[in-house]
Every structure is written in structure tokens, then in C-alpha cells.
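User: Continuing from earlier, I have the next pair ready.

Assistant: Great, send them over.

User: Here they are, in order.

Assistant: Folding the first of the pair now:
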Amino acid sequence: MKIIKFNVLLLIVLAAIGFSACKETKQEIPWVELIKNDSLEGWNIKGGEATYKNENGIIIGTTAANTPNTFLSTNEMYGDFILEIEFKVDSTMNSGIQIRSNSYPFYQNGRVHGYQVEIDPSKRSWSGGIYDEGRRKWLNTLENNPEAQKAFKQNSWNHYRVEAISDTIKTWINGVPASHLIDDKTASGFIALQVHSIGNSKEKLGKQVMWKNAKILTENLSKYATNSPLEPIITKNSLTVNEQKSGWQMLWDGKTTNGWRGAKLDTFPNEGWVIEDGELIVLPSGGAESAAGGDIVTTNEYSNFELQVDFKLTPGANSGIKYYVDTELNKGPGSSIGLEYQILDDALHPDAKLGSHEGSRTVCSLYDLIQADPSKPIKPIGEWNTAYIKSIDNHVEHWLNYVKVLEYERGSKEFLKLVSESKYAKWPNFGMLEKGQILLQDHGDKVSFRNIKIKVPKSKNE
């Protein structure tokens, strides 16, 4: 009898030890609470004029009329992290949680932009999807994930887990995998809670979104990261959801040389260019213009178009994106002739101080003709930048990282005067082709390209 009592006592002690050990293990996870006490300490409001308050550890956002989206953002910036948070939203509202987001004066007057984990109580049920606020719109939708769509609980508290590690973002809603995205557009930024704009809707005035139990991990993330069974959506060298809907096409497939040839060749160059890890790279050859592999051009010609290209410079590098190119011009040494979006290390390459017009050979400028805005949002050497060129009915714009840096009218008096004062004066009718090829320049320096996309507007007869 004593032995039985001893064994029972031993089991109770072991169970207590085991429970204590489990409790201690849970407590070892170094979560940092983001919502403190009954205040909004550590947070600030950006964007619109919706209101936020903290009641008993619950942040409550309330809609306001005639104001843009409003965000309650952390003061601190986060790169890699694991976030858990609970939320409850009015069934008539849309909301979201921003991650790796930013607000700069030069970007649409401070507009908040970056990844958003969607909160969507509508019939669409895309809660847990990933939207690129203020930039590319939808990146990871949920129409092919019915389990996640069903996981959202209407008019009740829901739980998100978000893992943003390196170029991968994974989300879970109430424990169900929702999104799995691989995208490296933005590496760090603040976290923010959104109250969506309602315009002048009286029905949505005063509606609320609530958040609680927000906590974050920023260290030893591999120890706590979770595998997702979802097939990842990879944005590199592919079209986003909205790009597909609006008529964009890939101009380079990320794998082959299809659609491209040497500017002075019938085929793609045998040397001087390589394709590595989804990047189209012109190799260094001493800085000479079109002296190694040479420039490459599209096999098709374009009239009206929108072009987007990611580029990455090495220190001191020079290159360019040309448009309305005629490869029959300048069969001799040097580059093919066309209008050029300059790609340059302004700090180290001497060309930045040259040009027929002051500043006209700096990065993003219309080469030798028009200087780009000196306050352009160029990223450091070695990081990816996004060039965007729009040419519709002779109105041309150069953009860098979603900010317009110059615009001009082809054929205008001002344009023709600039040409007459430039190195292009010797080329009759320079820059005035009705259509031409797109060119990536070999200037003898290592420069990488990816995500090369084009949109050609439909003609009025289509």
C-alpha cells in the first residue's frame, strides 16, 4: 500500500515538474509587447484623421468622414520579425495591418506604402492576403485558398501570425496558412494599424476596428519560424495580379534570351552577358561603350508604351535603358542611337559631371538632354532600383522607385532645341521615330537587370 502511495506521489511530482518545465519553456520565447498599458506609447498617426485610443490594452480605431486611409504606426522600424496580433473588425469595414512600410515626404506627400496583411470581412474573404499599399496593389490573393477564406470569424476576434524573414512573408489566420510570398521590394519599415477611408459614407461613420495582444520577435527567428504548406508566390520576373489584369507583359522571361538580340547582331551575344539567378547581367570589360558583348535590344518595336525595369549598379558603373532605338543607325563603334534613361553611379562615375546640359548625364536623366530631379529617391549602390518609362502620344515620363523625376514632350520646340545643343545634333530627326526597339546598354561595367515588363495600350480600333 505504501508503495502504491509512493508511486502516486511520484507521478504527481513528475507531472508538476513537467508542467512547470512546459510553462518555463513558453516563457522563454522572447516576445516583446507592442501595446503598452492603456496608452499609445510607441505609436504615431500617419495619413488621415481617423482616431485611435487604447482602452484596457485594446487599440480602437474609429472611422472619420472625408479623410484618406489613416494608420497608427510604430515608432520603431522592423526588418525581419515574427508578429502575432488579434483583431476584430466591423463587418462593413475593410482594414489591414501594414508591415515593412514607410512614409517619405518625397513619396506622394508622405503616403504610407508597403506590404499590408489584409483584413477583409466582405464576401471576398481575403483576410490574410498580402496587398502592396500605395504601390503594386495585390501580391498574394486568397481565391485559391478556401481554407483560409473560411477561417475568418465574422464579428469576433481573429488571430494573425506574420513571419517576415529575408525576402519571404508568410501569414496565418486563426492557425490556417493564408499567404506565402517571396518578394524583396522592401526590407524594413514600420508596422501600422489601418482605419480605411470611408469617403462621405454616413453608414460607415463611427465604425471601429480593434487590435489587442500584439507581440513581436526580432531575434533567433529561425528557432521560432514555422513551415508553410502553401506554394509560394514569387514576384521576381513575373506579373503581379493587377499587372496581369491591366495588360502588362513580361519583356524578359528571367531564364532565356528569347525576345532579345545584339543591337548589331542577328542573335544574342555569345559573350559579355550572362543570366544568373533570374538576373540579366552585363559583365565588366573595362568601361568601354559597347565594346564587349555590346548592347542588346528587343526583337519587337514599340510606339506607345509603359516600361518597367529593375536595375542594380556596381560601384562606378555606367549603363542605360534606351527607347525608340533604330539599330540601323550608327553601325560603327559605340552604342546604338536612341533616347536614353541614364543608369549611373553619380558619386563615382565622371559622366555625372559632364553633358551638353547641366546634370543631364546623372542617373534617371534623359541622357545629355534633361536632368532628373536632383532629389530623386535613388537607393544605395548594390541595391535594386525600379525604373519606369512612360511614353504615350509623345508625352514621356521618367520615374524612379515610383516617383516621377522628369517629363517632356517629344517634338516640342523645347525638346528640339535641347537636341540641337547636344551630342545628338548630328543625327537627323533624333528621338522622333514613330516606333523603335528597347535597348539595354553595355558600357563595360557590371550592371544587373530583372523584372523587365512592358504595357502597350490598345489602339482605339481594338
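And the other member of the pair:
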Amino acid sequence: MTATTPPPSRRRIPLPSFGAQILLALVLGLALGFLARAAQLDWLTGTLDTVGSLFVQLLKLAVPPLVFTAIVASIVQLAHLKNAARLAAATLGWFALSGLIAVGIGIGLGLLTNPGQGVSLDVAGAQAPQKQGGWTDFLVGIVPTNPVEAFVEGNVLQIVFLAVVVGFAAMRLGAKAEPFLAVNAALLEITQKALWWVIRLAPIGTLGLIGAAVAQYGWDLLAPLATFTIDVYVGCAIVMFLVYPLLLSVFGRLNPMRFFAGAWPAIQLAFVSRSSVGTMPLTQRVAIERLGVPREYASFAIPFGATSKMDGCAAVYPALAAIFVAQIFGVPLSIGDYVLIAFVSVVGSAATAGLTGAIVMLTLTLSTLGLPLAGAGLLLAIDPILDMMRTATNVAGQAAMTTLVAARQGILDRDVYNARPVELTQEPDAEPSRVETREPVAAH
């Protein structure tokens, strides 16, 4: 008998990495967007818009249960840490400091380039946006009138408030709350598993989002506002690629290149999705798995940053926009006005945390300075184009400052941070990692 040779096994073609898939989808989306716009293919524009919008909706769908269950589960762990209060204070401090630097860069660029001078726009027909920011929005918006409504509307700040209250109440109850905490842990695991399926669709969502943006807006709207648009992109780029790396290197003793290698998938997704909250699940995951931030701390810092740490939308953009509007309407700004812009940008991001969009932050800045709110309406046409870079900067800052605080408090896993970033191809482990209850050590 002659031995039969086994059939040759089929070789599986290796797929590109997750980041490479998003990059390829970005390029393909740009090409399809330009094609749809040039050939006026309405069906293609509609298809791209539907794909992108559906992906963002799926991301946002997972945010409320993820934020609530993760924070409740983490409070129990954080209660055993000796430096929990110090972590919270350090997070607030570094969020504010980096935001102050960002608004300073925005003001500096505005004074250097004068984006509103020589721009001819019809200000007579400009109308103030319907949504406007106010200083009472934070206090009014943080406490929900209806807990169910907070989840239905996806108000992250209110969900964080509810989760903190429930978490501390469960912690004080002790053994009586164990059945509830077991259910909460199971729901967290289910949410993370379902969310990972959505994140794996990010390349498809990227293709639809960027393609629809190019097809609908193109670059025609940028011509009258070219200087302002360039200022926003340059200002955000300086914050993202110079300020954050400098802070990580000097104060955290961290290699900035390692940070971008780890956080890049979240930054890419933020750029195309234009949603810090929608990107938050991926931001949290890269912070834990690729940057070495403890799960307990990341479960607090990332959701909090997604609602209040917005260096693109709440610092660089409103500073430049305020200068632009003042120059358009011929209103001179004093040194005190620039100081007020900085104050509003650092503190006001929390005041608009329960609302959506940088326009709300801009109206708060304009109203505080006494500038015409109709000036914000002049920028609505190009807002989607600006929002891509603003949101990428927001998410980069959320991940960078969370990593920096963890490094300075001595709880960052530097082996994970310095290692080659793991591929986001495995489903996440929902079991919270335990942080050692040691005193913080100096960064090394």
C-alpha cells in the first residue's frame, strides 16, 4: 500500500494590524469621498454617511453601561488605595495645567496670525446657535432629574455622578452589597465583550465617516476661513505633538514615542468619529493594555476626561475663535480679556461637560467677553472639518495626562508602557486588575 500524502494546508493570509487597517480605511474613505463629490454620486454619499453614523451610534450605545459598571466596580478597589484622594487631586491639577498651556498656544497663534483681519463675511445674516453655554450648566447638568433619562440621553457626566454615588453606597454597605456587585461585574464583562465586537468594526466605520465628511463638505468651505482653519490645526498639532510629549518626558520620565505607539488607535478613531465620548471605550482600553495605566484609575480618569478634558474643543478652538470673532466685528480685546479667555477655557470645559459640541463652549466664551454670539454662527459651516483635529487632540490629552499622573504616582506599569504595543485583536479581560496599595513613589 502506498501512503497517501495529506493535502497541503491552506495558508492564512495575515491581516494588517488594527492601526494599519484604520489607516487603510482612512485612505480609501478619502478616495471614495472625493469620488462621490466630484461625480455627484448621491447614493455613495448617503451610503458612506449611513455606515459612519451607524458605527458612532453603536459606540455610543455601549458607553452608558460601560461607564456606570466600570466606575462602580472600580470604586470598591480604589477604596483600598492609600493615595486615592491624591490621584484625584493630581488628575484635576494636570488636566487644568495642560489646558492652560493649550489655551495659551491658541491665544498666541491668534495674536500672531490675526485670523479675522481681511476676512469678508456677511455678518448681517449670522445667527447665534440655539445651544449656548452658561456657568450654571455644570451644577444643573451634573445631577439628573431622572436616572433613566441620563442613560437614555447618554449624558456621561450624570452617569458618572450616579455611578460614584452608587459605588460609595455599595462600599459602605459591605457584605450586603455583594450580590449587587456580582451582578455589576457580570454586566461589565458582557458590555466589554459586546463593545469589542463594535471596536473591531472601526476600519469600516472610519471609511464611512471620513468619506461622508469629504463628500458633504469637501474643502470649498475653507477658502474664506483659511487662516483660521490652519490656526486650529496648527495649534492642536503643537499641543498634541509638542506639549504632551514634553510633559510626558520631563515630568513622567516617559518616552513620548511609546505613548503615541500605544495611544494611536484611539487618536485615529477620534479624528474620524469626531466624538470623545464615542471614542472613550477604545481610549480606556489602550490606556490599560498598551500604556500600562491601572484599570481602577483608568476607569475614573478616562470617563472624567472625556467630559471635561478637551484641549482641542475647550482651549485652542475657543481662544482662536474669540479672537477671530472680535476682529470680524471690530471689537478690541484687552489683556484682561485674554486672561478671561484662559480662565473660561480651563474652568468652562467642566461647565459644558453635560452638553455636546465645541459651539457650546464657544458661546460661553463669547458671552463672557461680551462679544456677539452671532459670531459663532459664522464658523458653523466648517465646524465638522475643524472638529476632526479638535477631537483627536481631546483624546490624546485624556490619554496623555492619565498616563502622566499614573507615572508620577508610581502606579504605571512601565514594562507594559515600554513594551511593543499589543495588538488589539483579543477580547478584553473584564476582571479589574488590582493596584498595589503602596505609597506613591517618584517617577523614574
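Worth noting for the second one:
The longest helix spans residues 42-78. Confidence is low (pLDDT under 50) at residues 352-356, 430-444.
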